[in-house]
Amino acid sequence: MKVILGASLFVQITGGGKVVPLTPSQLPVGARHGWHLSIPAGDGRAYRLAQIEQGPFRTRTEFPLTPPVEWTVWARVSAGDLPGTWGFGFWNEPFSAGLGLRGMRRALPVLPNAVWCFYTSLPSFLSLRDDQPGRGWMGMVFSSPTTSPLAWLPALPLLAGLLFPATRRGLRRLARHWIHDQTVILPVDATAWHRYTLRWEHQRVSFEVDGAWTATLPFAPQGKMKALAWIDNQMAYFDPQGNLGSGILPNPAAWLEIAEE
């Protein structure tokens, strides 16, 4: 299946975020349509998001994507070191169902599954593995069981250990048994137009840039997912030292442009 986000586009914005179509003169060569996603400058007291995705869906069971899936996009961003996160790819929206915005109803959290080209800045660290970069401009995969969240209720007492750094390090190692992740650094200047292809197969995923650079990772997400692209000012970390946190960051005015064939 080839994904065309423009065929089922749903927009999520907050904090002054905007999504506007690119004009033909703004498109890279080979692209037919695209979008300019922007967030305004601001301090760390407000969440700012501009996002396009497949949808809207009321439950995760309605998500349309299962392997094999391929998505090709052109992308560029206003600066390579923006505070917060931005990117594009596929995910199962594991946390807080649309961040309280329009769209999917609130639902219990589930373990993450994703394939995406993903950028995140300091202080974020988004890998459970100590040998992965955890931040930067990355091709990233998360693969986790699709068990009902109610099945994890007996493990809730373990969350009390998050209060203590030494225990957090142990819980982080334990989580690797269920949440598998792997990352590859994307070796391109993200501020220039590049053509990216993401392929999600049953046993592997691959990332291709400009038809010249390819990386294949030997495992794949589970369950159904949806396609999205976004830019925001959030951060989250669970690093090898056991530091754990999340929040929002001050940011300059920033934008991400996405185009499709």
Series of secondary-structure elements, N-terminal to C-terminal: EEEEEEEEHEEEEEEEE
Strand content: 35-45%
Q: Tally the helices: what do you get?
A: 1
- Look at the structure and give the mean pLDDT: 90
State the share of residues found in helices, binned by percent: under 10%
Name a few traits of the molecule:
261 residues; 7-stranded antiparallel sheet; globular
Task: Give your account of this protein's structure.
The protein has one helix at 165-175; strands spanning 9-14, 18-21, 33-39, 49-54, 69-77, 85-91, 114-120, 136-143, 180-185, 194-200, 205-209, 213-217, 226-232, 234-238, 244-248, 254-260. It has 261 residues and is mainly beta. Strands 1-4-13-6-7-8-9 form a 7-stranded antiparallel sheet, with no helix packed on it. The chain has a 7-stranded antiparallel sheet with strand order 2-3-16-5-10-11-12, with no helix packed on it. A two-stranded antiparallel sheet has the order 14-15. It is built from 1 helix and 16 strands. The radius of gyration is 18 Å and the shape is globular.
